[in-house]
Write a structure and sequence with these properties.
two-stranded antiparallel ribbon, TIM Barrel, 14% strand, globular, 293 residues, binds iron/sulfur cluster, alpha/beta
């Protein structure tokens, strides 16, 4: 029996806000997910195979459900106050979000990410990284700016070829709109990391690289194999290989093109470009003084 639309968008009141983390995001102390599920429904998204998602929606296809975690802003406020009371707030590094996109369309109605950012503005942690691919994050850019050097926008732009986006992630914002959003966020005074994650087929290192160089304070380049947390096996369970085959893009596991882009950028950006896991966690390790921010 299929879930009805009401069941696919039903609220799941948050019993807690922050989740302790480790693994791929080592260095960050917590993740923060305002939603369960993600309407962007990227073909390659390994989150669709995680047991927590199959638990919430065993039948619905990935991308067909989004559960708002209502009350998460209030929960977060309480948890941040507890961290402050314990003297831990300055060493708290939060990644928002690792298993959903906090600025998909439903956010404009629910404003759960805004509630979280407001709580974080009032009780600033040592580091907040907001990860999205949606220009809707600009609605909250003023809140992010108030976090100053403690706040980063990490914006996903996996390719400079919009036809590649349309083939693999057709519900995601057009690439041109993302460059515009990144430029607007930086113009508003927010630090911006562009996450080429995963690196999809793109034009040429010099062409895509020049855009990244012009738009980003820092860049992370990642691949399916290095970046899905299990050596590519999670991605292998998705339809990614079928799309690559249908499009004639070659082996989805190949990392050479991503490495060429990384090397082109590294020559020009130095430590401001990172590879895969280390690239993502550099900011958090910087908080602990392990590396430069
Ligand atoms: S936006 Fe992120 S969480 Fe959402 S489907 Fe795409 S990869 Fe998955």
């Amino acid at each position: 029996m299929h879930a009805t639309a009401g069941e696919r968008y039903a609220a799941r009141p948050a019993s807690a806000a922050l989740t302790k983390t480790g693994g791929f995001l080592t260095g960050f102390t917590h993740t923060l997910q305002p939603y369960i599920g993600c309407a962007f429904g990227c073909a390659y998204c390994y989150v669709q195979g995680l047991s927590v998602h199959r638990f919430h929606q065993p039948a619905a296809a990935w991308g067909e459900y989004v559960h708002p975690r209502t009350g998460i802003g209030e929960r977060l406020r309480q948890e941040l106050a507890r961290l402050r009371g314990a003297g831990l707030l300055d060493e708290t590094a939060i990644f928002m979000s690792s298993a959903t996109d906090p600025y998909q369309a439903v956010e404009r109605r629910m404003r759960l990410s805004r509630a979280c950012l407001t709580a974080l503005r009032d009780e600033p942690p040592g580091l907040l990284v907001v990860q999205t691919r949606s220009p809707f994050v600009l609605d909250d850019v003023a809140l992010l700016r108030e976090l100053g050097s403690r706040g980063w926008l990490s914006f996903t732009i996996e390719t400079d070829r919009d036809e590649v986006r349309r083939a693999l992630t057709p519900r995601c914002p057009a690439i041109e709109r993302r460059w515009e959003a990144v430029a607007a966020a930086r113009a508003a005074g927010v630090q911006v990391q562009v996450a080429v994650s995963p690196c999809l087929p793109y034009s040429e290192p010099a062409q895509f690289g020049a855009l990244l160089l012009a738009h980003a304070d820092r860049v992370v380049v990642d691949t399916y194999v290095s970046g899905d947390g299990q050596g590519g096996t999670r991605t292998a369970a998705t339809t990614t290989a079928a799309v690559y085959q249908a499009q004639g893009w070659g082996d989805w596991r190949a990392e050479e093109a991503a490495l060429r882009l990384y090397e082109w950028l590294a020559l020009r950006m130095g430590a401001r470009v990172g590879w895969s896991q280390a690239g993502f966690t550099d900011l958090a390790r910087g908080l602990r003084g392990d590396t430069e921010r």
